[in-house]
Amino acid sequence: MAKCTLAVTLAAAPTQTVINGREMYECYAETISPEPAQLLLCMNAGKKIGTLFAAKNTGDRLIISGDLTLNTKDNTTLVNVLSFCNAHDDQFINEVIVVGRLSKEAKVSDTNKSAARSLAVNRYNGKEEITDWFRLRGYSYAMERLVAAPKGSLVMAHGCLEQKNNRDGNPYVEIKCRTVKVHSKGKGGSPNPAQGTSAAGYDQEDFESSNDNDMPFDWSN
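The structure corresponding to this sequence follows.
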């Protein structure tokens, strides 16, 4: 599961297209944040809300909610928009929640202030199961959780979406975690980190939380 609520600025007006046999509206946008993330927004053209979305123009500011996915073929971050509203100039919202299984070991930054780790999130596109690999970064208690949790642990991470560039200059998105919660009954042991990432059937209380509000003001690594 990967859900998001984001304040965005449209980089272009929505256009109609066909994706997997469905008529959709799509357009590029970027998050309203110090380190904006480039997004491709998609919305079902067969619904009334799709008509309202199609009427938007370049530069419009919106608050969108929907499913967050990754397209590894062209390194695009997609949001399947389920709802939206107009945003004021001073509104800033960047909330992401992902549930999946941890892969490999955490990589601690050279300054020992943060740690990064990959999270496998499964989704089904109607034909096959697809795994999205999200990069998590944690500070303080969230960092401790990312470092200590065994490979394959089922976790729920809550944070904000930001865009970075790798050594080759190619962009990628990173979730900077406010909290990392490890499921008490899913601590490692899964031979496939991408297997069973759905949170269906799990109780919220089963996720052991790191302390809330442990996101630092200093974002340097």
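The domain at 2-92 is CATH 2.40.50.140 (OB fold (Dihydrolipoamide Acetyltransferase, E2P)).
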